Amino acid sequence: MEKYDVAIIGAGSAGLSAAIYAARGGLKTVVFEKALIGGQIVLTTEIENYPGFKESLSGFELIEKMKLQALKFGAVIKEENVKGLAVEGLCKIVETDETTYRAKALIFATGAHPRKLNIPGEDKFTGRGVSYCATCDGALYRNKTVAVIGGGDSAVEEAMFLTKFASKVYIIHRRDQLRAVYAIQQRAFKNDKIEFIFDTVIQEINGENNVESLTLFNKKTDKTSKIQVNGIFIYVGIIPNNELIESRVNLDNQGFIKTDDEMHTIIPGFYAAGDIRSKSLRQVVTATNDGAIAAFNAEKWIQENLDKILI
Ligand code: NAP
């Protein structure tokens, strides 16, 4: 059985930052990733606010740099699905589809996934006009009309990205005020390809083989209407990937893991970092911050408990 000092679940920006700090600190470090190395950030077209890069860079480019940096310090990345976690004394046991690993400390950095609207037509047209990733699918809508649903940073930023391709982009939001930060809002208001539809929810996504129109309901006027669109991009928030651990740690009311300032959960030697954690600002910079703090404290915790951890 392979044994490590630190096992990190999730190779997004939090997990890779933790891997850089842990491996550079001399800990034998393994990172597990079941899907896409990089997590949600790989779906982000342009990162403008990560310090150190004057020119914006894509999520993919940034994550590739983090991955190479983690590997350089000796972290091992395993593309294996983790199906179970257990704690035996102070030892952490990671069960993947392939085998079982043991580790002294564990950093849980599984991130989050996009929330669905759960309306008629959403599943039927996913991949045929319904998308959760403008970076992936935006170029398919050259000179077409698309709608972006949501009023947060993701919805408004990705709507601006879509104006590079689409001739018209509706932003449809359920309230009359956006949630996105002021600077992002201001740029969107100045973009003449974007039209805002406020106080409105989507009742149904309609079409024959592909998306053709949306049925809208205005919550202030109680009126139903239809708009013709070729695509709909859904950005209505994120859901924590907490399935492996939800019953054993403290969660906030949205299911994000509560930690102390040192990223420690209520399980000794078990840390959480990045978007999975309960916090107010979800950015790459706060994810990498969490990862670094978790790794630093995991190392400290291992040193303090060395004689008690049997792995
Ligand atoms: P978010 O901030 O939670 O916003 C979700 C939006 O979707 C809100 O406007 C919400 O409306 C709306 N919404 C939620 N459920 C809905 C439903 N069932 N039907 C219709 N609308 C619904 O999510 P996000 O924009 O994905 O951002 C997630 C996190 O990443 C945030 O912390 C954000 O700041 C961060 N982020 C930062 C950047 C950046 O700094 N450049 C970029 C992207 C994301 P209400 O406003 O009415 O609640």
What does the model show?
The strands form 4 sheets. Strands 1, 2, 3, 4, 5, 6 and 17 form a 7-stranded mixed beta sheet that branches. Strands 8-15-9-10-11 form a 5-stranded parallel beta sheet. It has helices at 13-24, 59-72, 134-137, 153-162, 182-190, 284-305; strands at residues 2-9, 29-32, 76-78, 82-88, 91-96, 100-108, 112-114, 130-131, 145-149, 168-172, 194-197, 200-207, 211-218, 224-228, 231-234, 238-240, 270-272. By secondary structure, the chain is α/β, with parallel strands linked by helices. It contains 6 helices and 17 strands. The structure holds NADP nicotinamide-adenine-dinucleotide phosphate (NAP). Residues 49, 117, 149-155, 157, 174-175, 179, 201, 235-238, 282-283 line the site of NADP nicotinamide-adenine-dinucleotide phosphate.
Which ions, cofactors or small ligands are bound in this entry?
NADP nicotinamide-adenine-dinucleotide phosphate
Residues in helix, %: 10-25%
Provide the succession of SSEs: EHEHEEEEEEHEHEHEEEEEEEH
Count of DSSP H/I helices: 6
Mean of residue pLDDT values: 96
Distance between the termini: 10 Å
**Main sheet, how many strands, which sense, barrel?**
7 strands, mixed
- The multimeric state of the shown protein is single chain
Q: What overall geometry do the principal axes of the alpha carbons give?
A: elongated
Summing up helix and strand content along with how strands pair, one would put the structural category as: alpha/beta
User: Number of DSSP strands?
Assistant: 17
Rg over CA atoms, rounded to whole Å, is 21 Å
Content of β-strand: 25-35%
Question: Low-confidence segments, ≥5 residues, pLDDT <50?
Answer: none
